[in-house]
Amino acid sequence: MPRAYFRPRTAIVVVAVELTNRATGRSVTVNMLLDTGATYTAIPMRVARGLGVPVDPEQTTPILTAKGAFERMPLVYLDRVQTLGLGSEDVEAVIINLPAKTGLDGLLGGSYLRNYRVLIDYPHGVLEIE
Amino acid sequence: MKVEDSKHQYPNEWVLLAVEKKDGLDVPVEGQLIAHGQDADVLWDEITERQGQFYVFYTGEILKEMAVIFCA
After folding, report:
1. Cβ pair A82, A18 in contact under 8 A
2. Helix H or strand E segment including B7
3. How many CB atoms are closer than 10 A to CB A75?
4. What CATH number is given for A3-129 in this structure?
5. Residues of A with Cβ-Cβ distance to B39 under 8 angstroms
6. Among A31, A52, A96, whose Cβ lies nearest the Cβ of B48?
7. Domain boundaries, chain B
8. What distance in Å separates residue B8's CA from the closest CA in chain A?
């Protein structure tokens, strides 16, 4: 089973995720926060622009934000999302405002994770996906 | 340039590499340095004119002194 390690007992799990846009011939690996509470995978606009993923302002989905309000956010499809060697095709992702000062370039959420069995061992700092 | 070396050479910066070598889980470990700096948007602009495999990462502590709740 593919396995990654993180600092034991830390509350956040960050994984390297490869995003691919076949139309532009571009794959970019970024650091994403593993977010089992998120319905969708999410990327900031800078990543969508860099990958060359078209963003249609008319194609949006309502998202409950951490502020407790619903906001409509652009919905895109990523040709391929891969982490720990496990790839999924045509993964839905929303475009969110994720400041660069977080050091993150996205959230790896349910639109990818729902395809896998995910084990997070916080005390030992181990992530397994199969 | 090795990814680990870039973390020491460019502390608390964003780094963009063209991937040359990956580990067994397909995580980049080595690449050609394309750009580095404090402004992530500048690095992403560099990618828009290129094809290939790239690695964009921040060399500092992620979510330093922040607590987060994300919903998406």
Report:
1. yes
2. helix B3-9
3. 17
4. 2.40.70.10
5. 100
6. A52
7. 3-58
8. 16
